[in-house]
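Morning run. Coffee first, then this:
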Amino acid sequence: MIARTHLLAISRAMSTSLRSSTSPLSQFSACEISDALIKLGSPNGGHIPDVHMLSPTSQVKICAPAYTVQMVFASDKSAPKLSSHFVDTATPGSVVVVDAPPQAKNAVWGGLMTAGAQARGAVGVIISGRCRDLAEHRAADFPVFARGHSTVGQSPFVRPSGVNVTLTIHPKDTGDGADAFAPVIVTPGDWIIADEDGVVCVPVDMVDKVVELAKKGQEIDAKCMADIKAGKSIQASFKEHRGK
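And here it is:
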């Protein structure tokens, strides 16, 4: 069974371009990591909702530490101002995570920023907000995950206010109450895993536990898949391997 799981991991690696460091998290999908985080008590499985891969057009996976950027409305005169462009201070091997005001309809990332991020060794960008210049990102083969896109640029609507700060990313249009999707906290250095299924944040102090549980979950799912393909019912397979 371990061999079957290993073959599954090899198959995924062959069809997906991986942009990451050597973190053990890189061997798992965003879904597998979310499942592990749920078991560890995360109310949202680390999932940053409504953020989708817009570039490149081929399958890609990011597994890298977060370099965070907080955007505010340009009308906010009380928020700090940066002395350098936020892309110029991105760290090599990081993924840029940008949180923009949810009401903003403009883009906060464009083709020039992708060029600058690539020159500095960043592996991709995650945007709780919008981007533009899709053709340029795709031509550069640069991973861009965002909630949407816009023809309108950053100025004069929003501006960066902080880098390497803790972000609180709120889901859009989820309402209030006990069943509302919880905000996701992204701290600088937290691990970001992003693939075609979505984006997940793993707190840096939970990596070892997540890896342990994700590996167990991966092995159990491989057993279920083998049984189901062989004709066993899903219910019976789940009961045998998942215990429910």
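Residues 207-229 form the longest helix (23 residues). Good start to the day.
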